[in-house]
Specification:
This protein is α+β, with helices and mostly antiparallel strands. About 25% of the residues lie in helices and about 40% in strands.
């Protein structure tokens, strides 16, 4: 009896020892490398207009590939892009996306891995923060920690001479005196199309026959400019033209905003909306909306004409397209005029088509190739990361399977020992 218990205890101790050794090896073989990623600066305080360098540093590990996001305050800082970084970098508002990998497959880097330059624009305190992924030569992801960095910007405008300040104020005042743009334009009824934009000068409105006068509220960018409004009273049935004329304070410039008002009891017959507006193989900016009348599109240098599709909401409305062929290099204006079923209500949609010149076309294609390569690199990095995750899952599954097998073996040994003990005990009783 004692001998059997000794055997059982020996089996448990032996299996526990074997299990400990295997799991210890698992953890040592597949343990993730740990390291620290931190930001540093060549200046803790910088003047407005001066440059500052922000460095990304790593310690405790070597890396052969990484991608990170560096966040900064783009209201107070201007990022100074290096021509050598165009293949690796993507700037989106206040975030720098950067990706790098060793093309040779042999190199590893550590310490200071990248430095970015910024120009201080505005006084205040700015914070830099970092987040990203780092990989070893074996494509294993590093377990990293990150820090943030704060830098102060000092406004040196207070040190400008009195004469310099006066000169700047005089220039600003002169520009304002020659300003003939509106800051806002509103009517006492809704329905003005498109929404007001100081650089858009043609607007459209349809009203019922009970509307005789329109109240127009204008707000000029320069309060001293002169405003004259005509045509907004005693509206007649049909088409009415309202003019808002702005003359600058110094009488050197003027702007004219036009509101095309259709007065009718049959609103449906005055429908000048387009249902579809599109150009084959190109995208309009902004996206088509029948309440927007001005669009932009950029086309290739070898594009002499475009295939334009303009379909009105009302099948009986007429559409006329002006100048959609023989495009010149640079800006080309295409006008799409929609005439309603009533034959007098009109709306004009404008498309500014910019045809790239030969040099711009080369730069565009080069930029597309770089973006494609960058996208491929990001996809490769994502694939490596996915492979690493799959490898980790496989490792965990292997550990679990091994533990299950170990428990099954122990259980079988226990059952075998108990059965053996019962058989032996039974034989003793028979004797």
């Amino acid at each position: 009896m004692k001998f059997i218990f000794k055997i059982i205890i020996f089996i448990f101790v032996f299996m526990f020892f074997i299990n400990y050794i295997i799991l210890f090896n698992f953890n040592n073989i597949y343990a993730r490398t740990k390291g620290n990623v931190y930001l540093s600066s060549n200046k803790q305080e910088v003047n407005v207009g001066d440059e500052i360098e922000i460095s990304i540093n790593i310690e405790g590990f070597n890396t052969s590939a990484y991608d990170f996001e560096l966040y900064f305050d783009n209201d107070k800082l201007e990022f100074l892009e290096n021509a050598n970084d165009k293949d690796n970098i993507n700037l989106i508002n206040n975030k720098i996306n950067y990706i790098w990998f060793d093309r040779s497959g042999n190199a590893e880097v550590t310490g200071n891995i990248k430095t970015f330059k910024f120009k201080a624009k505005k006084e205040g305190s700015v914070t830099f923060s970092l987040n990203g992924n780092f990989y070893t030569k074996k494509a294993q992801e590093v377990d990293t920690s990150f820090n943030s960095l704060q830098v102060n910007i000092i406004d040196v405008n207070n040190n400008k001479s009195i004469l310099q300040k006066q000169a700047e104020e005089e220039i600003e005042e002169s520009n304002n005196r020659s300003n003939s743009k509106l800051q806002n334009l509103r009517l006492n009824i809704e329905g003005l199309v498109p929404e007001f934009n100081k650089d858009v000068f043609d607007y459209y409105l349809t009203v019922n026959n009970n509307i005789n006068n329109l109240e127009i509220l204008t707000m000029p960018e320069n309060k001293n400019s002169k405003i004259e409004i005509t045509g907004n009273e005693n509206l007649r049935e049909g088409l009415n033209i309202i003019k808002v004329q702005i003359t600058s304070e110094d009488n050197t410039s003027s702007s004219s905003y036009t509101i095309n008002v259709t007065k009718t009891n049959n609103i449906e017959d005055a429908n000048t909306n387009l249902e579809t507006l599109a150009i084959q193989n190109y995208l309009l900016y902004p996206n088509f909306d029948n309440t927007v009348t001005n669009y932009n599109v950029e086309v290739a240098n070898d594009t002499n004409n475009i295939n334009l599709l303009a379909i009105p909401e009302d099948e009986e409305a007429k559409v006329e397209i002006d100048k959609n062929d023989k495009l010149q290099e640079g800006n080309n204006t295409i006008k799409i005029t929609v005439t309603a079923k009533n034959n007098y209500t009109k709306k004009v949609y404008n498309i500014n088509v910019y045809r790239r010149n030969e040099n711009e076309e080369k730069e565009y294609k080069l930029e597309q190739e770089k973006n494609e390569e960058l996208l491929n690199n990001i996809q490769k990095t994502s694939t490596n990361q996915e492979d690493n995750n799959n490898q980790k899952q496989t490792e965990e599954q292997s550990k679990n399977i091994y533990l299950i097998i170990t428990l099954i073996i122990i259980l079988i040994i226990l059952i075998f020992t108990i059965v053996f003990f019962k058989i032996r005990r039974s034989k003793k009783k028979q004797k």
